[in-house]
Amino acid sequence: MIRLQSAPIVAAELLSAVAAGGDGAVALFLGTVRDENRGREVLYLEYQAYEEMARSEMERLAEVARGREGVSNVAIVHRTGRLEIGEVSVAVAVAAPHRAEAFETCRFVIDTLKRTVPIWKKEVFRGGEVWIEGAGETPRRDQS
Amino acid sequence: MRLDVRYFASLADTTGCAKESVELDAPADVAGLWSELVRRHPALARIAYRPLVACDQEYAEWDHGLDGVQEVAFLPPVSGG
Fold this sequence. Notes:
The complex is a heterodimer of chains A (144) and B (81). By secondary structure, chain A is of the alpha+beta class. Chain A has one domain (2-132): Alpha-Beta Complex (Aldehyde Oxidoreductase, domain 3), CATH 3.90.1170.40. Helices cover 29% and strands 39% of the residues of chain A. Chain A contains 3 helices and 9 strands. In chain A, helix 2 (51-66) runs antiparallel to helix 3 (99-116). Chain B has one domain: Ubiquitin-like (UB roll) (Roll). Chain B is 21% helix and 28% strand. Chain B has 2 helices and 5 strands, in the order βαβαβββ. Chain B has helices spanning 10-15, 30-40, and strands at residues 2-7, 19-23, 52-55, 58-60, 71-75. A 5-stranded mixed β-sheet of chain B has the order 2-1-5-3-4. The radius of gyration of chain B is 12 Å and the shape is globular.
């Protein structure tokens, strides 16, 4: 399951998407909207995606993750549009026979997603708004 | 050559548009296209970083040739998650 959606993320959908009888572990990561950033009181976030490319980058990332030793399945869902405080902006689920691979790959997926998938958030805070933009170099293809 | 150029996040605010069509007289690479875009949108010269580039939805370097490319996107450093 690889999705970019404006509707709320339902974590249970990712869990059932990756579930299989041969797995003894599912690691689930949820990224949520925080009410504070750099001393600013955050009111809400607006996510914008380069949709076609974000989807293909997420597909590619899932493919790399599924190819890792000891990993069975991966699901990634990211929100777009306006998100309120506490809402889930991104979800990653990784199923594996054993927990070590599930935890490690879940972390690999979210860390890589934050560097490579073309999505941006605009923070609307009390008194203004600002695009949050990472410190990025052009992502390389050779990571795994 | 005719190209669809797209801008995202703060770059779209800088240019005032998310998408435009650009006609180049001679074959060019990404850097050559950027020079033309800075001519159109002088505010682009003042951004504090070099944008990421995608040619037909694949990350590319600034010396990437545009022959056969349809869409070029300029991306601020990403901040999803």
